Structure formats: structure tokens, C-alpha cells
User: Fold this.
Amino acid sequence: MARITSPDDIKQLGTIMSVWAHPDDESFTSAGIMATAVKNGQQVVCITATKGEAGVQDESRWPAAKLGEIRAKEMQAALKKIGITDHYWLNYQDGLCNCVQTREAVAKIKDLIEKYQPDSILTFGPDGITGHTDHQTVSKWVDLATEGKDIKVYHTIEEEDHYQKYMIEADKKFDIYFNIDKPPTRKAKDCDIAYDLPERVIDQKYQALKAMPSQTEAMIKNTPDDMLKSMLCLECFVKAESK
Assistant:
């Protein structure tokens, strides 16, 4: 498979399944890829392990007791912006994915793989991009669920130059990589997917993130539009190592 860098190249991914830990993981990492695939006529399925109820940012506006419900509604709105209609919750507790019985979680993902027969899966690498244990656990579940199957698994990664130019400063302001000193990075030429989003797709991604104010409002309000678009414009993935 050739490197994927353009909207037409996205067709190489076929039917896409994206598997993430929390609402907004999918939008930050791959909203552009998924929106482009939907426009191409490809099927896109999204799976989310938890409702992100531990991500309290402003208790007065988004109280902890209701945050799971709030984020679930935000997720629905974000997926509508991307164009995704097939979405599934695994219904695990935010922050405790590593306490779930692995066999049970893997079985749920296997069932959805059997139903949709994806050609490609987008998810976290073993590092979890931010070091979050939920992210790392989801990566492990996908590895196990795809063992022995002819499915290309791609792990989200930061492009080195993009990270240096935009994301270091953003991390200082918003603690994006909260549990890791530096996310995994590679040069664009070494990524299997290095998709520089067209302007229209950047706007779709922006709108998806804007639909999740309990998590993104501070970032959007405190980042100039041109800087925010530069932060969002590139989505990079590398193929998982052969199992």
C-alpha cells in the first residue's frame, strides 16, 4: 500500500473502524481522515470505550455527576459534523480500562469487527500518545482483537516538525500530553499516513471539536484561529508492527 497523503489516497483504507478511549479522542486524532472517507463513500465505524466522565474541567458548568451524559451528547453532535452514523460505546469507566477483564473487552471489539469487516483500524499505539492508561489499554485490546486477521492497524503519532512548531507550545498551555514527557513522533516521510487536511476538512474537524465544549472550549477560546487550524491540519499514523 502506498503512503496515504491525499483525499484520494484515503480510499486505500477501505472500510475504516476507529477505536478510542474517550469522546474527542477520535476528533483530535482522525476526524479529517474519517470525514474524508465518508465523503469518498467509505463506511466508517467508531468505537469509544468510556464516556469520559472523569474529565471534569469546570464543575460549575459541567458537573462530574452528569459529565458522562453531557459528553455522550457532545460526542453525538461531533460525529454528526464528521458524518459518522455507526458508533458504539463499550461502556467502561473512565480511568479504569486497565481494570476491565481483557477477554471481555476484546470479545466486544471482535464482535464489531465480525459485523463490519473493516479493512483498516485507527487507534492508539502502545504509548497511548499521551501516556494515558486508558489509551494504552485500548491499544492492547485492538492488538488482541485483530490477532491473525487480515486488517491493517494504524497507530496515531505526532509528526516531528509539526510537534516542534505547534504542539509543544500548545502542550504548555493545555497539558495535551499530560502523562508523558513527549509523545511519539516521526517525520512525515516515515509515516504510513501523513494527511495534510484540505481547508474544508480542517473546518469539519474544528466544528467537531467545537461540539465538545466541556473539553475543548478553553483551547478554542485561548488559541488564535490561524494557530488552531495549524494545530489541527495534519493527521499522522504508522502501521502497527506485525503480530
Notes: Residues 124 and 139 are 5 Å apart (CA to CA). The radius of gyration is 17 Å. The mean pLDDT is 96.
